[in-house]
Amino acid sequence: MTTIREVAKEAGVSVATVSRVMRETDKVSKEKRERVLEAIDRLNYQPNMIARFLRTSKTRTVLVVVPDITNPFFSNVLTGIQNYANQTGYHVLLFNAVNIRNQNHELMEMLGQKQVDGIIMLTSQVEKSLLEKMNEAYNLVLACEYIDGIDVPTVAIDNISSSRKMTNHLIQIGYRKIAHISGELDIVLSVDRLKGYKQALYEASMDVPNAYIQEGDFSYEAGYNLTLKLLSLEEPPDAIFAASDEMAMGAVQAAQSKGIQIPEDIAIVGFDDIKMASIFSPALTTIAQPTLNIGSKAMELAIKRMEGEVINKSQYILNDHLIVRKSCGYHV
Amino acid sequence: MTTIREVAKEAGVSVATVSRVMRETDKVSKEKRERVLEAIDRLNYQPNMIARFLRTSKTRTVLVVVPDITNPFFSNVLTGIQNYANQTGYHVLLFNAVNIRNQNHELMEMLGQKQVDGIIMLTSQVEKSLLEKMNEAYNLVLACEYIDGIDVPTVAIDNISSSRKMTNHLIQIGYRKIAHISGELDIVLSVDRLKGYKQALYEASMDVPNAYIQEGDFSYEAGYNLTLKLLSLEEPPDAIFAASDEMAMGAVQAAQSKGIQIPEDIAIVGFDDIKMASIFSPALTTIAQPTLNIGSKAMELAIKRMEGEVINKSQYILNDHLIVRKSCGYHV
DNA sequence: GCCCTTTCTGTAAACGTTTACAAAAAAGTG
DNA sequence: CACTTTTTTGTAAACGTTTACAGAAAGGGC
Hints:
The structure is a homodimer.
Chain A: H1 4-11, H2 15-23, H3 30-43, H4 49-56, E1 61-66, H5 72-87, E2 91-96, H6 104-112, E3 118-121, H7 128-137, E4 140-143, E5 154-157, H8 159-172, E6 178-182, H9 188-203, E7 213-215, H10 220-231, E8 239-242, H11 245-257, E9 267-269, H12 275-279, E10 286-288, H13 291-306, E11 315-318, E12 321-323
Parallel strand pairs in A: 1-2, 1-3, 3-4, 4-5, 5-11, 6-7, 6-8, 8-9
Antiparallel strand pairs in A: 10-12
Helix pairs in contact in A: 1-2, 1-3, 5-13, 8-9, 10-11
The structure holds a DNA duplex.
């Protein structure tokens, strides 16, 4: 491996000068600069990043904690992060936290070991105290999920208002018995979506039976099973608003398995606008989240923090939008 | 930040002893070991990994090059890699290569800079010479795509035989006019799948018109458009074998848009068995690849190489299997 | 030519570990 | 007890950079 020392010798200058040329940080005379560049070229020199990291105590690397890369929503956000990172010379260390709650320790270890300069979490499914610690000791940014009561930069959509928007849409086009299949209710995001749904009903002075609200877990299977449950109610809903597209697809197929037509007999809508939502048949009415932007904004904020900038505003709310397709029975 | 020096002072021993306790590499008397452990605990010491990396010139990190994390196939393999890495104390640095061909330079730079000990590529879409260089200078492992003529450890399924298996299945259940929509034919994998298809036809002494073979690019849109093309042939096929599930879904919808029923009027099958393949309607007959295993095996090999072991066998072929669902019209 | 700035360069000390080597301590052996 | 062998410890030199500091060179003004 060629080192800076060898380059210095080859160019007939000191190591300091070589370093200065590399980093373009300080004035170097034209003549020496050229000699150095030539030497670098000749020896095919590449600086050892680890040594630089050690000296500068900056790694230009951010740890990204993803609950499940397999989930298209997360992988899209991750793509946004990665793209932005690429453009700015940062690197992404991946932490695929299948069961994040058991991995807290490991997570804190990685941070303490200085391998990364910052951390972006696509989930806030950890103890609040841990989140607080990470926020003050390291450069934390949350994406996708807002958490109450601590002041950490967060980028997400306004789940309450988008959920309200969706519910309003269903009300407007005439549905009166709207059920909701939520995500796990220990996740803020699920609670918010439920909240928005309730607000819309309240504003429209509509009342729904308790059984219209079912707690799922964002999975296809949950959507399927809970829909069977909803359909067997004495007075089944005429519309189902699922908190994820995957659950909505499960809902559609559960209904179809009972010979029920979508959207003729019942409307079913989702959330996220994953690619399949438009391919699926019937195409799903859903809420599109600006996943790539969420990712890049999160990375942008993380970089700002890592470079020492103080972030005054802590909530970054990006615009989602309602996408009306066939599954809600409203033809544009 | 607490350093090893402070721990040493606190415990009343030398830094070497502390290091030895940490790494469990050398004998340390019980008494001192305990003193050190206590001191570590008291000071909440965590070793600075970067410093260790520099000294040992090992980073326990592997660079994973993924063409597109958004693609469920890749994200599954990545999950396999990540899981195995986690278990063995390795880390994954993500390189999302949207257009890998333009990023060769960047890739080589990262390797030269010693930030990673090895590299796993989920694509071989780079110049062969580059691959060769990576293979000899760094610890390269290929996953998913085999490349001819260089001796780099590769883990994948046997695309030729699985494609032949699928085609045979279609022949067996009675189809005689089987078309194939391939991936990009500058990718080995696509060529292999095409090859398998042709072999099966050949063995069955079947001949198909040239127009039955269409080059796509694995995308839904390609599947859709090429199917429209196939259907408007004078003698349209009675079965379409798409080289990816996504293309198969496009094919299904293209057919449906023409009022053609699947599988009654035409069979359509895919490849990969992504989650949607079973949810989609009609459920897709497809080839299931052991994605998680591909990932973990690749990581296993990478670790072996990084730890200096010489890998004698260079091809690791994992078992795929045919999954028969509704879309091929064969009821089990 | 002299003095004062300004610009450029080199020396050497970090950064926080690991580890070769030597020295010290402990354990065996007769 | 004296000697040898084994085990445990500490000292200090790496690893390959960056950068504070001081010194040299160059430029400007008179």
